[in-house]
Amino acid sequence: MPELPEMETYRQQLTRLIQGRQITGAEVTRPKSLNVDSDFFVRTLTGNRIIRIDRRAKHLLFYLETREILVLHLMLGGWMFYGSEEEKPDRTAQVVIDFGLKHLYFIGLRLGYLHMHSPSEVQQLFGKLGPEPLEPGFTFPQFQKVLNSKKSNLKVSLVDQSFLSGIGNCYSDEICFIAGILPLRKLPTLTEEEQNRLYQAMRTVLLEAIQFGGYMEEPLFVGDRLTGQFDAKCRVYDREGEPCLRCGHLLIKEEVSSRKCFYCANCQS
Asked: Catalytic positions, please?
């Protein structure tokens, strides 16, 4: 599932590609991916413009010139492609937004969605989300307050969107590895020094992942050399049985609250 770095990569690239361009049409092949009538969706978009693209947690927000906001959550298996009909991958798109000869294809929206909301609805929708880990104002003392609000283990807490926004399975494991802390540790057992290591690791991992386009492999457009470059840089995620890059011991995969979790039992404590 795309996490904060993947959605931030999409935000940055789509801002350059479609922001301010007139929407010439739209197509919906799976109405369940929307929360409004398909015809109304197409009518609202046609002739409109996306004037701003933001990210909140694992969501993208497309702000329309007419004040409606499209809220995208790709969930498991969802991704996007921007290009001509000849360039598009041989995959079914559930929603397509047209920009002349180029199109934005929303692919794999079986669990994901593209909903249309008013600004007040969006504010209510995101009201229960936790703080953004990369916000400039999210300081270490504020991070400590968040840590002190829970007593569960680190893995479960990091992927809880009401705890922190945007972190999922991949980056929770990568953050714990860089911090040298076991993801199974209970939050109350962390020392202040370990809390600080965790905070610094969180910023380091997320910023590095954004720099290298996240871990999703599907390119956003033909010639896209950024998207997915972090996949090869993952230290522990999906590397069960491989030697730890830090100490050489074999990495472990464990299921924690129905989530897969990867770590090194030797150099994480």
From this structure: 2-3, 58, 259
pLDDT tens for 244-267 read 999 999 999 999 999 999 999 999
- C-alpha count within 13 angstroms, C-beta hemisphere, residue 167: 27
| Distant-in-sequence, close-in-space partners of 62: CB < 8 Å, separation ≥ 6 | 50, 52, 53, 69, 70, 72
Q: Can you read off the two tokens belonging to residue 237? A: 């995620």
Q: What is the pTM of this model?
A: 0.95
Q: What are phi and psi of 50, to 5 degrees?
A: -90, 110
* Domains defined for the chain, CATH in brackets: 4-125 (3.20.190.10), 140-263 (1.10.8.50)
**99 φ, ψ (degrees, to nearest 5):** -130, 75
* % of the chain with per-residue pLDDT over 70: 100
Cα–Cα distance for residue pair 250/93, rounded to 1 Å: 40
Go through the chain and tell me how many residues it has.
269
Number of other CB atoms surrounding residue 225 within 10 Å: 8
220/227 Cα distance (integer angstroms) = 7
